[in-house]
Amino acid sequence: MLLDNSLIMNVKNRVSSLHYCLLFIVLFLPFNLFSQKIRETKRQRICLIDSYNSNFPTYIHSAKAIQEFIDTTHYQIDVEFMNSKEFVDDVYVKHFHDFLSYKLSKRKPYDLFLVADDYALEYVLKYEEELCQNKPIVFWGINNLDLARKQNTNPNCTGIVEDISIKETINLAKTLNPKLKEMYIISDNSESGKTDLKRVMNTKGLNTEINVHELNLAELSFSEFEKNLQQLKGEKALLLLSLYRDKNFKYKPFYEGLDFIKKNSDLPIYHLWKHGLNDGIVGGYLIHHYRQTQEALKIADQVLKGKAIKDIPVLDESPNQCYLDYKELKRSKLVPSVFPDDWIVINKPNSFIHMSRKHVYLILSVGLLVFGLLFFFIYYAKRENLLKKELIQAQLDASKVDELKNAFLNNISHEIRTPMNGILGFAEFLASPDISMEDRASYLDIISENSNQLLNVVNEIVDIAKVQSGHSDIKMEPIEIDSLLSNIEREYKIFTERKNLELRIVLSSCVKRVFADRLYLLKIFRNLIDNAIKFTHNGCIEIGYNKKGDFIEFYVKDTGIGISKDLFKIIFENFRQVQESDMRQYGGLGLGLSITRAFVKSMGGKVWVESVENEGSCFYFTLPYVDYDPALLIKPDVFCEVN
Questions:
Q1: Of 420, 435, 460, which closes a domain?
Q2: What pTM did the predictor assign?
Q3: What are the tens digits of pLDDT across the range 13-37?
Q4: What backbone phi and psi angles, to 5 degrees, belong to 429?
Q5: In a domain? residue 38
Q6: Tens digits of per-residue pLDDT, 237-256?
Q7: Given this model, what pLDDT does residue 3 score?
Q8: Which of 4, 54, 136, 456 is the most buried (most CB within 10 A)?
Q9: DSSP of 148-203, one letter per residue?
Q10: Do 146 and 170 fall within a single domain?
């Protein structure tokens, strides 16, 4: 029964969840479709009819303005190209019209038509009622001023004319070359070319010092034009209006035509439109299609937002600007001494003085960046070399340490095995009942001597272990120096006499006390004196001290084999003797001086050596001097015992 109830509750929960999901879908889906519909209806539709094609220079500038100005979230724009520079026959125009009419019949109605250049405007006005159906029309780039101005009476059409600056450009050419006498106007068989040529030749007030001639491809083939062009020399100039079609209707794209002129003439080429600048055109007062398109799009935006198109008059002034290419001026030897402020000169080499603040900051920033990178790379390279050297040195040091440790292990086995053999050997002799009392006493002395030798080895190992681990119990006490040295003299007299060496103690009257760890101080002296006895075969060993400023300077001097200067530092390292072979010849672990240095340093002093090979050595060490109460002195006769 419990199972059935649980199953029923589970089914009820699932049904309830399903109801909620269905309710959500029913409520949300219509809202989503409605919001999508709103977004679609908000986007207004625009159709652009361009006279040329997508590769034509004027359209490239217009397309840039459209891309920057048109918000695709609010507007949808379609483009239709007439390609009128290449195709002008009635058959092509009919095909274009039929195809455009078909597309318009299948599309949603447009809210506005944009028209670029003369050929497209003439076509749209011819079929305005059929194509546009009383929708607003905004144009730009129109050279036919009469046709453009007539649209002030058209309630559905307005725009911007393309007023070429003929007089200004010819006067500019005369300013750049005062010797200029002849200007050749290049035009072609296209409708816009014919219109522009007519405007030039009918322009009043041209510079009377310049004779204007035609090079008209409506009357010439490209080959005939080439021959005429090659004959032009001297103080002449070219003004390019249009070079797309010759009298035989042979077509060349703009830049191909421009290269054709440059190939056949060295004369400076002026132009009335911005395309071609930086590609061989000297310059001129140029029409900028980017700006024209911007202004036309502003008008279109006002119309789409509700402003009546009849209230917007046709703009019949074109804001043309003087542009020049410094490279072409230099090639044609036309560079003026001074450029007026309203001339825009491209490719002009800027001096540092005339650079804008922005460019100066940019150059300084780049310079600082390059300097910083250069500094970083130099530092990195030096650091890398240093690390490599340190790595190589570390490898060498590690190799040396390995060699020293191997030598130490070999030596320590020898140093332990030798006295142990003596102890074990003579202990066996003592077990024999046949030996005399005199021999027994001698064997006991040998066992005792070897035991002390073994104890010294163990003590050195313990001391160096303490030093390397950093654990050392220092007990600083005031000690009477003269008493200490006298006890040391008694301790070592027997050893020096065995080798026929003189042991000399030199006392000082300027200081009598030292504050030190008595055990450490005694080990320091013993290590230095043991070394002196070990490496001295004749002569004397001298022990003394003096006060040097705030320190007491002790020394142990001998007349032994001496030490080479290049070994002064390394002899205080672990496992070191004057020569590695000395461990075998003289015995010992090579730890005495290393332990000595550590003990001296722990009590605030330092140790060093002065030596001449084959003459002897003198080891110095210092301890801080403090004036103490004599009553606190501890005489060291308790711990000065003979090993």
A1: 460
A2: 0.49
A3: 554 555 555 555 545 555 454 444 4
A4: -60, -40
A5: no
A6: 999 999 989 999 899 998 99
A7: 41
A8: 136
A9: HHHGGG-TTEEEEE----HHHHHHHHHHH-TT--EEEEEE-SSHHHHHHHHHHHH-
A10: no
